[in-house]
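WARN no homologs supplied; continuing
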Amino acid sequence: MRWRIQSRRKTLLLLPLLVAIAAPAYVYVARLHAVSRLQQSGWNYQSDRRCLSMVGMHPRPPDLAALAWFSETESLGLNEAACDRSQLHRLRHLTGLKRLSLATSQVDESDLRYLVDLTRLERLDLSHTAVRGPGLVWLSRLHALRELSLAG
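OK structure emitted
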């Protein structure tokens, strides 16, 4: 009986150690899976530059759900992407984002509300989109924004 109690205590003492080892391993594997999913759907991820962009034209909208694993990404390019506007709220997970290009995408003024959580955003390219006027008020909350492109 005494051995069982000591055994349980040892197990309880080892539990935090097992969690400390397993949690980062899970995150690493989940992140690898997310990178694989992104690459299969046409994304280019450059971890050394913390850059994520679409490669070429794609008939299907990109799946933005996997972006939650890349909160440290500093640059995101969705140029010419057939972005499903209902997924744009997923951009809020990219808290380290400094550069975002939505040029020639289907974004309009009502979609700018999804960008207010990107407080580190310095450059935003909305060239050749439907963004024109009143919706720009959403961008007033982006205090780090230094460059805004609305060409076209």
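The first strand starts at residue 43 and ends at 46.
OK
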